[in-house]
Amino acid sequence: MSPERYLAGIGTHATISPDDLVDGAFVLSIGGAEQSHVDLAHPERVFYAYLRRMANVLDLLAPPGEPLRVLHLGAGALTLARYVQATRPGSAQVAVELERELLDFVLESLPLPAGTAIEIRIGDARWELEELGSREPFDAVVLDIFSGPEAPAHIAHRDFYAEAAALLAPRGAMLVNIGDDPPLTLVRSQLAAMRTAFSEVAALSEPEVFEARYPGNVVAVGLRGTWPAGWTAELAAAGPHPTALRRGAELDGLVG
């Protein structure tokens, strides 16, 4: 029987079920909707397309195997934290999650790989940034709390992105998963807000999502520095296929 936990904070149930198609993999569902996929046997495998695109950006931040400092805002099942540990042992990570019950359930049911160095913080993503400002800069800040057109106003705001950008090392990157429906109102507003805080902003998704024909997930990438030569081709080639990348003038029409 699949583990189940009632999350009093949000008034719904969470379950963790085996993936019938992938041995050693599990799916976290909240309120009956799939939220995260974890391959315990091979955490370097990332199943969801948007998470794979985020992982591809993390792969480019430093030479293979070199540890990173990563801040995760919204923990979910800690899929990307597991990926970073598997591909870059010795990385120092911090995860911020609002729902303690959810995180406890995930860690009890899906233990982290041995040796994972991660600090768990329970709190609101925005309000935790100030306290983290005294730390050594992060190589990446990953935001994964937007799950539809509605978003917390204090996070979906340019001031939030400015505060997050201040936590990054000069060559660091912010990665934001934005789930949205046509006409992509949230995607457009968040890309515009990120442009006020970062010198470079790009977006990754399926081509039809950019055309606002279907709901989907857009991965926004914000850099403090310049866009590295070769990243556009490397990220498009890394997949999942097809992957389209928009930046610069190509992004203007989407941002408005």
In summary, what is this structure?
This protein is an alpha/beta fold and 256 residues long.
Helix content: 25-40%
Q: What is the highest CATH level, the class?
A: Alpha Beta
- CATH fold-level name: Rossmann fold
Q: What name goes with the CATH superfamily?
A: Vaccinia Virus protein VP39
What is the correct CATH architecture?
3-Layer(aba) Sandwich
List the total number of helices.
9
What does this 3D model show about the protein?
With 256 residues, the protein is α/β, with parallel strands linked by helices. It has a single domain, classed as 3-Layer(aba) Sandwich (Rossmann fold). It has nine helices and twelve strands. Strands 7-6-5-8-9-11-10-12 form an eight-stranded mixed sheet, with helices on both faces. The protein has a four-stranded antiparallel sheet with strand order 1-2-3-4, covered by helices on one side. The chain is globular and about 50 Å long. The model has no long low-confidence stretch (mean pLDDT 92).
